[in-house]
Amino acid sequence: MFNKRKMLSLFVALLMITTVLVGCGSKSTSGVVKTPKEMVYDAFMNDLDVKTQEFKVDMSMSLSGTNVNDPQFDFISNMLNNSRIVLNGKTDTAAKKAEINANVNIGGMSFEGKMFINDRVIALNVPILGMMMNDPRLATGYVVIDSDKLMEELGQEQVDLFGNDEEMVKLATKIVEMYLDLLEESMFKNNGKKEITIANSNTNATEIDINIGETELKDIFTNAYTMINDPEFADLLFELVTISNPYMTRAEFDNDLNSLRREIDQNFDGDFDKVFEQIKEVIDFDNTSIKMSLYINDKSNIVKAVSDISLNFRDNETSVLFDLFVETDAWNINQPLTIEIPELNETNSVDFYELLFMYLGNVYY
């Protein structure tokens, strides 16, 4: 019997990729009237040229359920329903530096942290770790992750934490072209110029609303099979997968992808209406929605993006509703920025692996 969980996982992955891509990024030609979809595409391509920017990400979640018998559900839902993550930072891809300040509130517990990144090192300052690990160095110091050492542990070659710019642009361009081609022009609505607040300053930007419904999601999923049979897209998908799972080898990825292809062929023989009917047994599309508002300035940069995603999962009499709200702002785009990476030494930093082995030692001994 076909594994619906695999198909659902693929569907959710495609859904989230589409959401991220549509929200990412219009180089408009003077005097040329462009459709909202063209403006979104051009803005995304324009944002690939962004080298420096300051940003804010404000994210909140909620989880509710009906007839859920899992004893852990109430705990998880209460934790998520009181959660909020706010990130403020700045990036300079040309100098290969980034600085991020985080404020996290989960389940009524709040903590702050800082992250500094250059091409070889990630340095984290999370003061609450000093109390949790009973190590005063962590209260004001940094946990340092050396990328060379990390790759050595993973058995891979050295890596630049900022990646290969040319390859990343190629990846992003190919994926956004594929997915935007699947979205109908009717999904995009130009609401004209709006006054918005970015970094405590008012500015004007063109507001474009995007609504993705059941029909669009079905089109995206129906075309997924064609895409996963495209060798170039498979290469891009592997790059995305290894971001979250760096341990996965290409052979393992190819084996999983081929297995999925065989299962689809054997069980549905290209009948994707049947595939989607199985997905509808798990996702209640009457109560599922994806709504986004993008704000594009006169330089064709997305300066604000608001995403409101509601996913309703069901299983017989049980239903679970997950809501995700994300608002991102960007300013000082391609303007000179100063990012000071702190000096790291033995007195103000702890190697990640030292901390890991120290923690494991405390657990087992």
TrEMBL record:
Residues 1-22 form the signal peptide. Keywords: Signal. This is Lipoprotein. It comes from the Bacteria.
